[in-house]
């Protein structure tokens, strides 16, 4: 009897010792496997959140050596990038703006770069297939290497049949822009004032642009109005009959002349979005950035 009691006692002690070891090991493993707490995302600026603030939608046409009415000089374009970055702006596409600016980092203000007419100075390839460092995309790509939080992200409004010239590079350019998160939209087919056209002609302009973009793997979402002029039947911008279906846009851009309302502003009309022309002088880009820097214009600021 005593011998049996002794055996049971030894077994009990072993069980208690084993449980103690088993309890300790998992706790140690859990502590070792616990991931580090993520660092808080630093705010781009110390500006207070302002979701009712204005949004800068910039309008570029050509980027060339010398400044002209519709041309931004290459020097001035670099300065635009530098100043916008310093002021806490970060690039978004028009679609990202329509989607609520969810990709914008805390403390940043959005800036939408738009390029009309698909001029070769916007995007040029060299013979070896690399991007020309002196075109707008090349200048921006170099800036983005030094400032990764200011990537090439813009909305390009193109004209068929050969946007940016260089027919052999069309597909490569489309793929480059899509890969970098850019938006490609419609500027119609012939760039005629839509106000001068019949409803059927407007539908042809909008539908032809849609078909052209679809042929390059682009789903149409937004457009820039030629000359900033809407058709007489403005409802066609939202939905126009085409080939048994419809051409649908989410937004349409005007030409000039000031900041756009925030998407949360009751005055926000996606089919009447104003832009700031990338030129000097009254109501040009420098004029409005001076207003932001002086505090006369309060931009949207991400919480």
Describe what this molecule looks like in 3D.
It is a single chain. This protein has eight helices and twelve strands. It has 303 residues and is of the alpha/beta class. Strands 1, 4, 5, 6, 7 and 12 form a six-stranded parallel sheet that branches. Strands 2-3 form a two-stranded parallel sheet. The protein is globular and about 50 Å long.
Q: How much β-strand is present in the residues?
A: 15-25%
Molecular shape: globular
What does the average pLDDT come to? 90
Mind summarizing the main beta sheet? 6 strands, parallel
Radius of gyration: 28 Å
The SSE order reads HEEEHEHEHEHEHEHEEEEH
Uncertain segments are 1-33
Terminal Cα span = 77 Å
- Give the helix level as a range of percent: 25-40%
Please give the count of helices.
Answer: 8
Structural class: alpha/beta
Q: Got a strand count? A: 12
What secondary-structure arrangement, pairings included, does this model have?
Blueprint: H1 2-33, E1 56-60, E2 62-64, E3 71-73, H2 74-86, E4 89-91, H3 94-98, E5 109-116, H4 136-146, E6 155-158, H5 170-179, E7 183-186, H6 199-214, E8 222-224, H7 235-238, E9 239-242, E10 245-248, E11 251-253, E12 276-277, H8 285-294
Parallel strand pairs: 1-5, 1-12, 2-3, 4-5, 5-6, 6-7, 8-11
Antiparallel strand pairs: 9-10
Helix pairs in contact: 2-4
